[in-house]
Each structure stands twice: as C-alpha cells, then as structure tokens.
Amino acid sequence: MCHQTVGLTARYLEANGIPTVIMGCAKDIVELCGVPRFLFSDFPLGNAGGKPGDLDSQRETMALALDLLESATGPRTTRQSPQRWNEDAEWKLNFQNIERIPAEEIARLRAQNDVVKEIAKGQREAAGLKTKQSDAAE
C-alpha cells in the first residue's frame, strides 16, 4: 500500500481519536506526512512487517510497533527497527535495479507477470467485466 496514503489516513484517524502506528520502509515519505508514530524498518519496500517467512522478525516488528504505541512521548515520533535485511547494505544497490538484474531473471519475471495478467483477464471476463482492450474496440 502507498506509504503516503497510509500516512495521511493515520493523521485522519488520529484527529478523530484513534491512535495509530505506521510501519514503513520509506522514511522520507512517511515523515513528510507527519504521522504521529512511525516504526521505520530499513528493508526493501513491501517488507515493513518484517522479513518474509521469518516469524521471529515479524513478531519483533509487531512488538516494536506496539511498544511505540505505548511509549511515544509526543507527535511525530519515529523509531527505527534494529533489524537488518542482511549483513551489508548491498541489497539497496540491487533492489529493483534493472542494471543489476541478469537478463534471464528479467525474462523469468516478465513471463511470471504475463501469467498473472492472463489470470486477471480470465477473472474479469468470468465476472462479466470489460477489459481496457475490449472497451477500446467498441
């Protein structure tokens, strides 16, 4: 989900008496939105809840978020998770960097995406929904 949308939603909820903690990986965007409490994980986008498949990482992240909800002393409180994605910061150079992805991997990802698009198209058609292509043809 979009960090900015989540941040602005949190501000709205807070203004209406509902406390929030945002868990995110895009520190600049979330802090710019001025959220009351923010747990920053220096992980690739999409992994704010902890490392995929790593229950210990996910539990620690949730515990940190709940602790932040309890202990924040003022608005715009940011706490950084002590967890690291890996031992070095090399992932930051590699993450979604097309120049560092081998051609075979790009081809595999494209093929995987094509399969997902076909599934989505089939589901739209089964539901009787028009696709952009069928709208353009009419």
Give an overview in words.
The chain has helices spanning 3-15, 27-33, 55-71, 90-94, 103-126, 132-137, and strands at residues 22-24, 37-40, 77-80. The chain has 138 residues and is mainly alpha-helical. α2 (27-33) links the parallel β1 and β2. α1 packs parallel to α2. The longest helix has 24 residues, at 103-126.
Overview features:
mainly alpha, globular, single chain, 138 residues, three-stranded parallel sheet
Layout of SSEs?
Blueprint: H1 3-15, E1 22-24, H2 27-33, E2 37-40, H3 55-71, E3 77-80, H4 90-94, H5 103-126, H6 132-137
Parallel strand pairs: 1-2, 2-3
Helix pairs in contact: 1-2
Q: What is the arithmetic mean of pLDDT? A: 88
Number of domains: 2
Physical arrangement of strands within the biggest beta sheet? 1-2-3
* Uncertain parts: none
Q: How many strand elements?
A: 3
Order of helices and strands: HEHEHEHHH
Distance between the termini: 33 Å
Number of helices: 6
Strand content: 5-15%
Compute the gyration radius: what is it? 20 Å
**Structural class label:** mainly alpha
Approximate helicity band = 40-55%
